[in-house]
Amino acid sequence: MNEMNVPRPNNLDAYWMPFSDNRYFKSNPRLLARAEGMFYHTADGQEILDGTAGLWCCNAGHGRREIKEAIQQQAAILDYAPTFQLGHPIAFEAAARIAELTPEGMDRIFFTNSGSESADTALKIALAYHRARGESSRVRLIGRERGYHGVGFGGMSVGGIGGNRKQFGALLPYVDHLPHTHGIEANLFARGLPEHGAERADALEALVALHGAETIAAVMVEPVAGSTGVLVPPRGYLERLRAICDKHGILLIFDEVITGFGRIGTNFGAERLGVTPDIMTMAKGLTNAAVPMGAVAVKNAVYDAVVDNAPAGIELFHGYTYSGHPLAAAAAIATMELHRAEDLPGRARAIEPLWQEATHSLKGLPNVVDIRDFGLIAGIELAPRPGKPGQRGTEVFRRCFDKGVLVRVTGDIIALSPPLIIEKPHVDRLYGTLADAIRAEAA
Ligand SMILES: Cc1ncc(COP(=O)(O)O)c(C=O)c1O
């Protein structure tokens, strides 16, 4: 133990780190040892301002006492109980609490353990729904270029990130993709929802014409795409997607893994964006990331179709050993209580104008080629170094970290998504440090 009473590992070999440059990390380790409020602390005692809420997940800030105590108490009462043909009370309570936040008529909740599992669960429910209604030809799943829906085979296939797919062969059959909504010149440096590009939703009509509506089960998109560098939907785009889905009997799935639980100023993105999907995935902010948990909310009619049309017995042959795990359910209930009591969506909305101003103040710095924001999300796109894509972004990340600020980088795009409890001094420090790092990497 060191002076901060945290373990200091001296062997980094055994752990194969996810989505990481293992070789670089293990020769230049950055170990986060503890966290509280807006800050991480490294094993060496350095304070790091969290500009990313971990991985878009610690919306209520770190180390919240209420969540910790709920987990501790639950561990003492019931460590684990199966939810296959059995139940335990707090899984039901957690589902009911989530249903209070989801759009009206979307009150049926299926538990998973991650965003990836939520994505695959949502896709499976969509397929089961059509089959239950006698439309078993609807097997085609439509995603979008640059979409991220985790790393299961379903989410990876429907997702649109080449780099995440290329090592893994053929993936799921019967998958197609809409074009992404990015790269429209007139939208550069837009504040909030960009004005141009709603017509890109019409590509769904083209896929319907190509494959036949009777083959298409669902379309899955993130309301605001985060992982591929903050792609904010053009005004009217999601409405158009909804209308085309309705016209052709296609289910619309929103992946709300990052937009859920206050990130864009409302409980879910659906609310702020004014479009209600049929199925919605969530994870991350659900438990403030204190215990892994994901969930899928479905319209009651979707649940009814699957459950009421099934022969007696199990209605959906899907689930996880840890679906509705007691510790995760306890963390979720405590988190949603904080969400309500502290009005986290309201806090995000209140600071959004200042956040937006600070974000766009980076315009004019060297190599800043675009800036996007919505809610408490920001994307700052840098021009790549010739022949070295991603290098400038990585250097900016490292400089910020060394100066005590955590930002996230996707290629040469800096993505920011702070805890929703962020205040002005944090915003100032975050953007001050980032601006210095961008200037320092001008060459
Ligand atoms: C929109 C979206 N969907 C799914 C996932 C995958 O979640 P997880 O890493 O919990 O599997 C993420 C993770 O960043 C995400 O942003």
Distance between the termini: 42 Å
Helix run count: 15
Oligomeric form: single chain
Q: Give me the side-by-side strand order of the main sheet.
A: 4-10-9-8-7-5-6
Which class best fits the helix and strand makeup? alpha/beta
Tell me the name of the CATH homologous superfamily of the largest domain.
Type I PLP-dependent aspartate aminotransferase-like (Major domain)
CATH-scheme architecture of the largest domain: 3-Layer(aba) Sandwich
What is the helix/strand order?
HEEEHHHEHEHHEHEHEHEEHHHEEHEEEH
Strand content is 15-25%
Describe, in plain words, how this protein is organized in 3D.
The protein is of the alpha/beta class and 443 residues long. The protein has two domains: 3-63 and 343-440, Aspartate Aminotransferase, domain 1, CATH 3.90.1150.10; 68-342, Aspartate Aminotransferase, domain 2 (3-Layer(aba) Sandwich). It has helices spanning 22-27, 53-56, 65-77, 89-101, 115-132, 153-158, 162-165, 203-211, 237-248, 269-273, 300-308, 326-341, 344-360, 391-402, 424-440; strands at residues 32-36, 39-42, 47-50, 108-112, 140-144, 175-178, 216-221, 251-255, 279-282, 294-298, 368-374, 377-382, 405-406, 408-410, 413-416. A seven-stranded mixed β-sheet has the order 4-10-9-8-7-5-6, sandwiched between helices. Strand 7, helix 9 and strand 8 form a beta-alpha-beta unit. The longest helix is centred in the first third of the chain and has 18 residues, at 115-132. The protein starts with 21 loop residues before the first helix and ends with a helix. The model has no long low-confidence stretch (mean pLDDT 96). Keywords: Aminotransferase, Pyridoxal phosphate, Pyruvate, Transferase. Pfam families: Aminotran_3.
